[in-house]
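Re: the pair you flagged

First of the two:
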Amino acid sequence: MEYVKSKIRDINDFPQKGIVFKDLTTAFKDPKALKEIGRALADLYRDKGVTKVVGIESRGFIGGSILAYEIGAGFVPARKPGKLPAETISATFEKEYGEDTIEIHRDAIEEDDIVVIHDDVLATGGTMHAAYDLVKSMNPRKIYINFISEIPFLHGRENLPEGVEVTSLISF
């Protein structure tokens, strides 16, 4: 993961002044880094019976799709309002720089599903907690939470539900 970490760049003052954004697009465009991310994600969940991977818009779609493909699971997008064509459920949450909402199709998760919710970076945890609440409301058998990278000084894990396995490939 050190190679992948070396390919992630910092963008100062994005999306607003005072934020240091961890830009994973520079790792995604590198074939070696992307392959290493995909392998590491799949290794975490290959033997856990996962049936669905929920990827959070938008960079969570990348790692989430790779993970779903590698372990033979379905992929479910969690999107911004108005982007999904069928009936949805939604959650509004606080981010480090404002408020946001995500939606998921009402019929995306079934009670026998084992789900990994994936996003690229764990910062404050608000987005992931909202996604977790949406998935949990559909009563799946089990939920895992996963990130490619984590910024521990923002204490995002403290904002995630207790008793849920949370993994990150990289810590800054």
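Second of the two:
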Amino acid sequence: MSYTIPIGPYHPALEEPIHARLTVDGERIRDAQVFVGYNHRGIEKLAQERNFIQTLVLVERVCGICSHSHALTYALCIEHIMGAEVPRRGQYIRVIIEELERIHSHLLWLGIACHIVGHDSVFMQCWNDRERTMDTLEALTGNRVNYAMNTIGGARRDLDDEKRRMLLEAMDDLEARMGPLARFLTEDKTLAMRTKGVGVLTTEDAVRLGAVGPHARASGVDMDVRRDAPYCCYDEFTFDVPVEHSCDVFARVVIRVKEILESIKIIRQAADNLPEGPINLGNKLPRVPAGEFLARHEAPRGHLVYKVVTDGGQTNRRVSIHVPTFKNAPTVPVMLRGNTVADAGLIVASIDPCFSCLDR
């Protein structure tokens, strides 16, 4: 006999509201539906009533984990409409903050995944390393969540030699700590039993449903905006784009471990080769002509898209935000089918969802 089990919209394993309706036969999930829309805040509407600097502050609060990504993507749109050339030093600083944000986002997800499967000691280790990364971000920017490092035309704060030295030491320490953590996450038998073959999203389904970011790369989709459509001088850095082909939750663990190591590599290159010169074009309220632009960005969770339309005035005519969770959420019902109810929370969490972004 089939039963319908609701999960959410408020659930102990999920910190944000999502409603999954499972049709189960015993413990086995036969069908699933996912409902969103419990957290709408009207940010796109608010952006139409604010000037460009105010909007930069606003969109940084779309998400607490990838706040820099939202502010940077909006700034890229305005800078293109203005025809502004951002100084290379400012672009390198943007890259450093972006990759630190990616590291702390991935460590957060790895910790939550371990917590869901019952490995609380590893959860605390992941979050300890994440805390150290956030300490580094605070030392560089003065903030731990909303870094306020972007302005229209570049970066707001410079990195002196002492901060660069501290940053490189922090990366050396993190890389050394990632060694045993990576071995555990990829070799532990208990973790493998809870994640291998669980929540499978085939490459065909990932392409068909439009999955992005680490979620797509864990399903064999070789795509990364930093490499495929470089911005902020990413074409000047050497890094690999990890791709896994087991297409399950275990692959999503491995992908994030590998991406942390690649981010460390990028940060070292940016810090060692930080160009001389200004970091921005000045902090005055910019004059933005009428125009429109669509910017693509590789946020920690995946492909982030902003489209901004201006009319020559002091405010935005339209700001449209297209976030990674919007693209990855349709994959959840596919991954749930055929799995057990006990794995449902882990499978939903495996896309690294941000429903604050989704319901902006």
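The chain is about 50% helix and 15% strand.

-B.
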